[in-house]
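In this section we walk through a basic example: taking a raw amino acid sequence and producing a predicted 3D structure, encoded as discrete structure tokens. The instruction is simple. Fold the sequence below.
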Amino acid sequence: TKRKKTHPGSIVFDLTSSTSWKNIPATTETIVWTFPAKPLELVKKFYEEKLSQTKNLIILGSTSCYKVKRQKQKVNEESELDLNILRVQGEEYLRSQGATVLSLAGIYGPNRCPKSWLYKSLIKNPDKYVNLIHVNDIVFSINHFIKNPQNGERINLADGSPKSWREIGEQCDFHFRMPGERELSKLVENDKLRRLLPKNYKFKDLYDSWA
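The resulting token sequence is shown next.
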């Protein structure tokens, strides 16, 4: 089989292959976990064998972790989690061990533009709200929490400006041909993130990114 190219200094790792775990350097003080933390049994085993001495473990999760029970429900880090989601089970276990869980909203940036999702007919419900964050804001936040650990915390990474797809469509002259469907939407708050980042930090604006 054709092997994938690797960058210089990279290592081979696969959570489902315990033989690859030895490739994680034993002296690593900070680890950013970028893949879904599941299944729970493997997450626990991997943590106990390789990560228990890691001083700053950062887990990238998703804002889909929250239960939504009503339309346009506001959610923050204290909102009820959906523990039926396997990755959320793993995230909560790791958080109980001192990890920082960053719950990411929808990511946009270069070559990943919500405007193009509309014209590719990927969006079916114009009245659904979407929570977004620019990739640059994610990188800045991760770097900030590497330098300023928030052990045991869950933090929402969202720009704090939820928008309906209909509103986004109006900004790029896209007109939906189908009526909206009743689908529960959540509005992700980012007050905690704003408190933790530098006071003068300004999140990227979706519409400015189109200019």
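Looking at the output, two observations stand out. Helices lie at 40-51, 86-96, 114-119, 135-147, 165-171, 191-196. The longest strand covers residues 56-62. In the next section we compare this with other chains.
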